[in-house]
Specification:
Order of helices and strands: HHHEEHEHHEEHEEHHEHEHHHH
Largest sheet: 6 strands, mixed
Number of helices: 14
Number of strands: 9
Length: 313
């Protein structure tokens, strides 16, 4: 067994995956991967129920401003969640008075402005690499096969908007407000808002206005334009609503739910004919799942899906 482990470690990840399947971290008794069990500096992860994880931005004394550790830990956290077969849905919220004040300029300013390199080309190359790493911190939410529901309260500024745009379902409290802040600090938003927000909001004119002026958008307008789908009275109620919808998602077949997320994202970025072909190819395998039979039997017997066991994926 030790020799087999050494052989697997020596192979390239893609070949190793083909031979043995994707590597999964050692799980705790509750099924959470080891990386989640160890915890994080800027995030707090807890299990709300058997198949639902709650990830909380956890720098309340800094208004959940995003420092260097946060950008790294978001990738580590959601890569671990993606590998956790027991997790079927994720809730994101913010600790303290606001969801997020955006990037921590005090800690991140020098990293963004003082880039290593012997000449402008090399400095530009290194800065591009940093920006791509920051982008991955939120793209990892889309790449995670489990639906991600975000519950926003209070301020959601700059990079906070980048984050929520990468989530699958967005709820907020009545006191929430949103601001694409980057032009006010001399840059164009570069980690997802300009790419994702136009696909979320029905008006290109509104997106342009928000991005050019950095004005605040309050909760009622956020709902009317489609940035959030529901508004709740306060922080407690929006978080509970997000957990409730996560529990409802987790009660469904993970084959069906994760296949749905995959195809929704594919359809967003491809034409209808391309997406239909992709869907046909996807379901030619996935329709053979036992989950189809199990769910159909539950429907015929009028059983609540919360009482129907589906195997983890």
């Amino acid at each position: 067994m030790a020799a087999l482990g050494l052989l697997r470690a020596a192979l390239p990840p893609r070949l190793s995956s083909v031979l043995w399947g994707p590597h999964r971290p050692m799980a705790t008794a509750t099924g959470a991967p080891e990386r989640l069990r160890r915890g994080f500096e800027t995030l707090q992860v807890r299990q709300e129920q058997e198949h639902v994880l709650h990830v909380q931005l956890h720098r309340p004394d800094k208004r959940n401003a995003m420092n260097g550790a946060f950008w790294r830990e978001m990738v580590e956290c959601f890569q671990a969640i993606a590998q956790d077969s027991s997790c079927r849905a994720v809730v994101i919220s913010g600790a303290g008075a606001v969801f997020s004040a955006g990037i921590d300029l005090v800690e991140m300013g020098s990293e963004l402005l003082m880039v290593e390199g012997d000449d402008p080309a090399r400095k530009a190359w290194n800065l591009r690499r940093k920006i791509c790493a920051f982008q991955e911190s939120f793209s990892v939410l889309e790449k995670c096969p489990k639906p991600v529901i975000v519950a926003v309260h209070g301020a959601c500024i700059g990079a906070g908007v980048d984050l929520i745009c990468a989530c699958d379902i967005r709820y907020c409290s009545q006191d929430a407000w949103f601001q694409v802040k980057e032009v006010d600090i001399g840059l164009a938003a570069d980690v997802g808002t300009l790419q994702r927000l136009p696909k979320i909001v029905g008006s290109q004119s509104l997106v342009n206005e928000l991005a050019f002026t950095a004005r605040k958008m309050m909760a009622p307008e956020a709902q009317s334009c489609g940035l959030v789908s529901r508004v709740f009275p306060d922080k407690g109620s929006v978080v509970q609503a997000a957990i409730a919808v996560a529990e409802a998602i987790a009660a469904r077949s993970p084959v069906a739910v994760q296949g749905t997320k995959e195809n929704l994202l594919y359809a967003r970025d491809h034409s209808v004919p391309e997406s239909l072909r992709y869907m046909a190819t996807w379901n030619m395998g996935m329709l053979q799942s036992q989950d189809v039979v199990t769910a159909a039997q539950a429907a015929m017997n009028r059983k609540d899906l919360k009482d129907v066991p589906f195997s983890n994926l």
